[in-house]
Amino acid sequence: MSKAIVAVVYHSGYGHTARQAEAVANGASRIEGVSARLYPVSGADAPWAELEQADAIIFGAPTYMGGPSAQFKAFQDATSSTVFAAGGTWRNKLAAGFTNSASRSGDKLASLQQIAIFAAQHGMHWVSLGLPPGNNSSQGSEEDLNRLGFFLGAAAQSNADQGPDVAPPLADLRTAEHLGARVAETALQFVRGRG
Ligand SMILES: Cc1cc2nc3c(=O)[nH]c(=O)nc-3n(C[C@H](O)[C@H](O)[C@H](O)COP(=O)(O)O)c2cc1C
Is the pTM for the entire model greater than 0.90? Predict the structure, then answer.
């Protein structure tokens, strides 16, 4: 049976986005035949050889000042030489993204868009969240999957005065798990299609 490797590469300054990243990886590893690997980054150093082995890379960063954190951007910029100029070695891998911030919007969309453009620069295939928006009717609630109503990737919201032990809430972690599982299933389809 075919196997697929899903890498989750993320930055987290204070631990909230790390919770989201763990949920993404848990969702991916639930899919039989998929091995999920978590890679925290905080600048230009990354396990480049291991990322090379991945069939899909899911990128995540907190939204800081309306975009991915500077530490995650430094990782992205490093790929200019380690990946792009080294032969475009991420071409045709799958990609997806997630972000977390304090406000419900907090301009998270700008971070997801930036990550999607980054993936496109590497010739990767973008996998969207694939969930309808939650909590957008009188029947909705804060417990809904995709309660923040994103399509491009998974969003989470962490109250500014709460630590990563309680934030982001379960609904956002389950949304992150959904993204991981969706990318894992798609990665298996790609791997089997190549065989
Ligand atoms: C430098 C900085 C900039 C921030 N900018 C935003 C922002 O633009 N929008 C927002 O909603 N929250 C913003 N926040 C709040 C963080 O996104 C939020 O605390 C998040 O949970 C941090 O994730 P982390 O614990 O993984 O670092 C900012 C926080 C910091 C430290």
Answer: yes
> Which residues are 99's β-sheet partners?
61, 155
16 lines ligand 1 (CB under 6 A): yes
Quick check: CB of 76 below 6 Å from ligand 1? no
Separation of 185 CA from ligand 1 center, angstroms? 31
pLDDT per residue, tens digit, the chain (195 aa), is: 679 999 999 999 999 999 999 999 999 999 999 999 999 999 999 999 999 999 999 999 999 999 999 999 999 999 999 999 999 999 999 999 999 999 999 999 999 999 999 999 999 999 999 999 999 999 999 999 999 999 999 999 999 999 999 999 999 999 999 999 999 999 999 999 987
User: Peptide bond preceding 164: is omega within 30 degrees of 0, i.e. cis?
Assistant: no
Does the beta carbon of 111 sit less than 6 angstroms from any atom of ligand 1?
no
Atom of ligand 1 nearest to the CA of 13: 27
* DSSP conformation class of 30: T
CA distances from residue 165 to 17, 162, 174 in whole angstroms, order as listed: 12, 8, 16
- Note the CATH number of domain 4-194: 3.40.50.360
Domain coordinates in residue numbering, the chain: 4-194
Is any ligand 1 atom within 6 A of the Cβ of residue 160?
yes
ipTM value:
0.99
CA of 163 from ligand 1 middle (Å) equals 12
